[in-house]
Structure to design on (135 residues):
C-alpha cells in the first residue's frame, strides 16, 4: 500500500528547462512547527521540476509517495547508524590486530565513512524521492 501526500506548491522561477517550486514544509513529526520545541529555521521546501511548462506564480499540486519518504528516512538515519557501528567494529578489529594505541582511530574512520555515505546519498537523492505533478 502506497500512501500519497499532496502538497500545494507555487512556481517561483523557470530556467534551463526546469521549473522551481516552493511549498510549506511541515515538521518532521507531522505536527505544526509552532508547537515544537526544536524551532526549524527554514519551513520552506524548494522542489526542482523537470519541465518548463509552468509560469512563475502558478500554483500546482505535488504528489509525494510516502513510501519513498520512509525509504529516504531509513537511508539517512538507519543506514547511517548501521554503517557507524559497523565502522566502529571494523576499526576496533584493526586496532587490536595491529596493536594501535589510539582510542580515536575507529571513531575518526567511522565519521569519515559516514561523511562519504551522506555525500553519496546527497548526490543520489532524486532517485529516492518521487514527486509527481498533478494538474
Amino acid at each position: 500500500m502506497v500512501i500519497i501526500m499532496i502538497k500545494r506548491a507555487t512556481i517561483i522561477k523557470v530556467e534551463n528547462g526546469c521549473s522551481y517550486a516552493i511549498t510549506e514544509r511541515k515538521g518532521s513529526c507531522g505536527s505544526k512547527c509552532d508547537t515544537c520545541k526544536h524551532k526549524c529555521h527554514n519551513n520552506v521546501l524548494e522542489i526542482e521540476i523537470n519541465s518548463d511548462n509552468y509560469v512563475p506564480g502558478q500554483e500546482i499540486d505535488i504528489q509525494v509517495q510516502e513510501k519513498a519518504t520512509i525509504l529516504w528516512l531509513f537511508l539517512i538515519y538507519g543506514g547511517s547508524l548501521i554503517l557507524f557501528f559497523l565502522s566502529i567494529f571494523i576499526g576496533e578489529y584493526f586496532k587490536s590486530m595491529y596493536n594501535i594505541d589510539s582510542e580515536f582511530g575507529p571513531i575518526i574512520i567511522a565519521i569519515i565513512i559516514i561523511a562519504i555515505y551522506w555525500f553519496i546519498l546527497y548526490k543520489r537523492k532524486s532517485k529516492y524521492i518521487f514527486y509527481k505533478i498533478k494538474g
